[in-house]
Amino acid sequence: MSGNTFGKAFAVTNFGESHGPAIGCVIDGCPPGMELSVADLQPDVDRRRPGTSRYVTQRQEEDKVEILSGVYEGKTTGTPVCLLIRNTDQRSKDYSEVAAKFRPGHADYTYLEKYGLRDPRGGGRASARLTAPMVAAGAVAKKWLLQKYGIEFRGCMQQIGDVEIPFEGWEHVPNNPFFAPLADVSKLEAYMDELRKSGDSCGARLRVTAINMPVGLGQPLFDKLDAEIAYAMMGINAVKGVEIGAGFGCVSQRGSTHGDSLTPTGFATNNAGGVLGGISTGQDLEVSIAIKPTSSILVPRETIDLNGAPTQVITKGRHDPCVGIRATPIAEAMLALVVMDAVLRHRAQCADVLPPLTPLAASAT
Amino acid sequence: MSGNTFGKAFAVTNFGESHGPAIGCVIDGCPPGMELSVADLQPDVDRRRPGTSRYVTQRQEEDKVEILSGVYEGKTTGTPVCLLIRNTDQRSKDYSEVAAKFRPGHADYTYLEKYGLRDPRGGGRASARLTAPMVAAGAVAKKWLLQKYGIEFRGCMQQIGDVEIPFEGWEHVPNNPFFAPLADVSKLEAYMDELRKSGDSCGARLRVTAINMPVGLGQPLFDKLDAEIAYAMMGINAVKGVEIGAGFGCVSQRGSTHGDSLTPTGFATNNAGGVLGGISTGQDLEVSIAIKPTSSILVPRETIDLNGAPTQVITKGRHDPCVGIRATPIAEAMLALVVMDAVLRHRAQCADVLPPLTPLAASAT
Amino acid sequence: MSGNTFGKAFAVTNFGESHGPAIGCVIDGCPPGMELSVADLQPDVDRRRPGTSRYVTQRQEEDKVEILSGVYEGKTTGTPVCLLIRNTDQRSKDYSEVAAKFRPGHADYTYLEKYGLRDPRGGGRASARLTAPMVAAGAVAKKWLLQKYGIEFRGCMQQIGDVEIPFEGWEHVPNNPFFAPLADVSKLEAYMDELRKSGDSCGARLRVTAINMPVGLGQPLFDKLDAEIAYAMMGINAVKGVEIGAGFGCVSQRGSTHGDSLTPTGFATNNAGGVLGGISTGQDLEVSIAIKPTSSILVPRETIDLNGAPTQVITKGRHDPCVGIRATPIAEAMLALVVMDAVLRHRAQCADVLPPLTPLAASAT
Amino acid sequence: MSGNTFGKAFAVTNFGESHGPAIGCVIDGCPPGMELSVADLQPDVDRRRPGTSRYVTQRQEEDKVEILSGVYEGKTTGTPVCLLIRNTDQRSKDYSEVAAKFRPGHADYTYLEKYGLRDPRGGGRASARLTAPMVAAGAVAKKWLLQKYGIEFRGCMQQIGDVEIPFEGWEHVPNNPFFAPLADVSKLEAYMDELRKSGDSCGARLRVTAINMPVGLGQPLFDKLDAEIAYAMMGINAVKGVEIGAGFGCVSQRGSTHGDSLTPTGFATNNAGGVLGGISTGQDLEVSIAIKPTSSILVPRETIDLNGAPTQVITKGRHDPCVGIRATPIAEAMLALVVMDAVLRHRAQCADVLPPLTPLAASAT
């Protein structure tokens, strides 16, 4: 009811605040018998870790994941997997100004109104830092889905601020600090350097995808696979828009163009983005999301204080000039969690009637 | 788990198929003591009913709502409210062709793969007809939210196919068959007439909004108000994209522009779309959705049959050339259901700590 | 949240009031592809139907089940199955006295305090009549579990009022109106005839069991199979106690006696009642429940009216002198729903790791 | 779905294994603004801690609770409260024998069959040690319920093995190691000393109660307050039976006796145990539970090994001769969690219609 659990069959309960003793999550429903160690989780967590380039926040968090339960002799036991990340870089900063004013674009005002009090340290529970345990949980899902079905998840940057990023190939993504599918990122470097100097921030548009998807995942009303994806993506800090397949482009398409033809070797196109009627088609999942500019900026902003009196606020400290950059591994993880949950739920209802989930070419021939 | 229930505190369980004996829903969690009769539900259901203009499907369904439970002497009792709509216009059509081929853009293939069988009559469970009970349930939520907080929900068309629709005023919406906020819809009429003649279909973009919103609704992780909205909207048949506030426009915004300033009389702008950190700000909720072109068209399409052999399919029958048109009352209803659920959930946790939910001007002064 | 849904994977949402237009339920999560018709449901519903002997209420309800959705060409489609039972014997009785006084042992007072109003007709939502849709839903589960695993459910009477009923054999149960496992029920007939003449009522103790149980069902914390059974049984109207296996008898047992030894051919005894650590052992489930005396009696009772003033009340009308009698098929149905839910949930998490669920003898050899 | 979360509105997700690094829980839905520190939790946790008398296991666990999240400057923030207890006394014991044989009365066999593997160290997840975090979570609920409504929870021993314990008064309970409501416990001491020498174990019967209960708690179908209590109690390790109010005694009662009369000053009796129609009456909740004898005993038992071959097993180590003794604070905590959840859920649906929840005398006058 309070909503800190993501998923129903692979249910991840998240806890913690940005500057409390620790953050973490509990995964309930992990299939037993899978080999699992910290080494499976740390690489993805490190991909979203702060302080890895000059284009992201310089906060230095080790983000070391501990597995507190659910694994025995290196294998999952089917009992809850608790993942813990200690907060190490909690600067003994003075939060009195942040506590006394509402920062535009932040959740300061809404948290205070909802709960009657709030933890102002580093954004408290509203911090994007709380996505780190989800990335770790997503890594568990990714491993299982890869082993079981060969499903893989990938994300890349499509646009940063005003700069559209052409897609040259997935192989470039790990080679630059922007998760850009591009060989030469000098233009992005220049753009980001200038942005940082201005003290301002910018938005971003990301693409996330899943390949080797089985057919048949998703509960048509209302837990459609695409509805679950939209929920997961819009739940990531700062996301303001979600598209599946053709997305908003479908508005000006004709039905004769949009509807993907079926052929003996598979669908001819993928305007659907891999989902029809809320159920996976076996095509790649294609998702695009919009991430708003970082709200913590050095440019002075008009606001009010706790008494409602007008004032100004500047957010000092170490902040990402484009939070969208570190969102790529987060979006991948959330997509993996959605697919994982859908697989387990599908098995509950349909395991006995159907042959193993298969892609179109195999099943339709 | 199987996903046919929408909401947690105001939980609506949907049932039925397009051409079965009846469709309907059960509302669990409706507050007791509210006056309720069919007269409260029928107007919204009639707004989405087929056959009301030449621009929508000519299927003639009365869509008469019956209240089977949960109301005694004209008041809700707090027990489940079952709403039933009998299917009256089930033409004794021959579905053998539809049953033997997969229609592009439809859920034929995915349902068959998921369940091992499917009901081909009128799209079965995948039909947009299943939104009718949600519109009725949404009307219950709308009535309660209006009485209790003065919250109102409105929707209008922003674009049909290639035609962008300027916003002239909400008062025009009920006066034309397109839900267009526009005095003169002759251009739309001409566009739609031509489209219908071509046997093809087009997409649409809608706006839905809630006014007089209280502050403090939404569960920040993960059942954020915007995440729930995205889930609800993407769960409507044919929706491929969802935006909150600035939406995809935020990608090229600067932080200094996007973050809405707070002033003693309220927020200066609404790029947030009424949600910060997953919690309502008290501003209007602003949501935009993209709806794909109708998949049932007269233009012949390439596809495969049940044996995987290539073939063609034409979808005869009575279909909406733009399903987006009738989606306006559906989107309003789904938004109302999200807000209703958020209010009840908020009360569970926070009822004792806080003063009654209030908008910014009042609370911050 | 409002609790009118039973189960998570095989989720049954119940609706209706005793004297409203209809009662019913929606089953969400039913596996697809199972043959299902009203003929599968009606026999169990008829077993709990009123008016079948002089030892139960003479209310004449046909209790005809209709299937409104989820079945196509005689097979379940995997979509929600709505089961409807019209209320036919709604006597135009004067409920003003019942509405003005609180009947001892009834939910009159608690409903009014909880909801601020109540439906006094025939007990409204608190009527045991609301178990009829659960019996129908249980019949769906029974059919599937029998086909899939050979699991069968049986119930019988162990005690009526002061009369202990020796167990002579299951074959007697359908041959007498008391569900007694006894050839000669003349003693029970005499007891019940006398009770009825006195205008009073009595309690009962029932046994319910499941045979051919698979090993491995149940979620150890907290949705243990026995915890779910206790929840299901205590949720039946008038139940005040639940035992699994040795039950309260375990208090004076020694550990050396209670713990069931394992042998190469199976467990030597069944003090566990078929559950260890919340997970099924493959032995028969053994459950015993206590049902309180009917609260509607002709004997005058002290009570208060709506103003809190002392008064007396007599409950006229057609009532069961021992509600426990008709509870046998209800308890069987609820046990079937618990097992069904546990099977589907088990498949979600463990389907890929394990061989098909097997009983001890087979698996341990 | 996997069931490691208890409650819906005050949802406690439990994690950990007996001999893993740590055990704990995450409370989701805790009302904000309540003062909370470890000092509120430790006393109850200490009451169930092992090693406190010679009548319980000598395992030495400090059971120090840490609050990892959800509290800021000494107050709950409304965000998840993670409670952690490090396992300190994990003896480097040889578990090879336990791992190779199934101990009668234990969950060894069922865990292995369900998950395909199991953690044999100290019972793994099936250990009663996992109730410690629930006791801590229960302490949070107790504090809030006491402050808000004056509700208090109490438990005591009613019977240990063959020794019935007369009720002399609640004041005795904290003064003896048996939670006995009795001044002179010498008879119990002698009984337990003899039992321990025999290497065997015995069962117990406990009473738990809540006083100053509000009227109106509980969701009538199916999350009745008594059904939730039965679920909670049967979910405690080793519980085999649950009674509410008159319990199994109701079987031989007459309706004219069982139904509690209402008078202007309240109910005359409490056969209902504080619940009618699944909703609290405002009377004390009265619950009784049966706890089986400890399965870990020194008496040799017949069993089978992993290959299904017959063998014997003795459970050495430090075990409670009567696990029921330490179950008293556990049962209190679980009852508190049920009531807490019911209060929050009641507020969601009914907060606006009703006056504050009140007991009978006040409301009916």
From TrEMBL, chains A, B, C, D:
FMN binds at residues 125-127, 237-238, 277, 292-296, 318. It catalyses: 5-O-(1-carboxyvinyl)-3-phosphoshikimate = chorismate + phosphate. Keywords: Amino-acid biosynthesis, Aromatic amino acid biosynthesis, FAD, Flavoprotein, FMN, Lyase, NADP. Pfam families: Chorismate_synt (PF01264). The keyword Lyase applies. GO terms for cellular component: cytosol. GO terms for biological process: amino acid biosynthetic process; aromatic amino acid family biosynthetic process; chorismate biosynthetic process. Gene3D superfamilies: Chorismate synthase AroC (3.60.150.10). It comes from the Bacteria. Pathway: Metabolic intermediate biosynthesis; chorismate biosynthesis; chorismate from D-erythrose 4-phosphate and phosphoenolpyruvate: step 7/7. This is Chorismate synthase. It comes from Ramlibacter monticola. The lineage of its organism: Bacteria, Pseudomonadati, Pseudomonadota, Betaproteobacteria, Burkholderiales. The gene is aroC.
